[in-house]
Amino acid sequence: MKKIALLITLCITCIGNAQETGEDKWGAWYMYFGTNKVSDKLSIHTETQFRYYETTSNFNQMLLRTGLNYHINPDAIATLGYGYITTDGTFEDLANEENSKEHRIFEQFILKNKVGEFLFEHRYRLEQRFLEYQNVTDTQHRARYRLQVTLPLTDIFFLNFYDEIFINLQNEAFGQNRLYGALGVNVTENLAIQAGYLKNHFSNGNFDRLQVGVFFNPDLRKKKK
What we know:
About 10% of the residues lie in helices and about 65% in strands. The chain has one helix and eleven strands.
């Protein structure tokens, strides 16, 4: 009953927060994430995101990201990766969010631990961003920290929450903050789906986003005979 009450509280909180947004449209992010094990220590990260200003229309952003993960142990992972991002900022203007293309290199470190039934994940990320605005180019750097908490409800259902802060390493320090809550379903051992709500806070606005994510983590190692 405590877990059900927690889920109800999350839903009520999300609905309440939705009334405080600075944008009058609900947007949506549709996402795919993959961690594909290729050896005992190495895996390949794959990721695709399509983001919309409205739930099924008014394109905002496409994000493609990949990386090589080194599994130090089951609870510590280091990653070096690359991302390509195209942004259409014409619906709602934000600082540095006009039409642009971006090549991004990132370095990442993840630590995991468990407290009771709660699974904690700390993600530290540095990004080098190479942006193109029409005929103008710019290089920016930023740091990100995400604290994620997962609570299993049953073998199939779980809750997932995170808060992530973005810190610019030039100009104004605060970039954005993302607060997220979702209900997840373990479809198979390697496949999960999450549906939830994201409050994306910038210094000049708050944006409500529905999120649907597919997580597929097949083991690509050759099976021993």
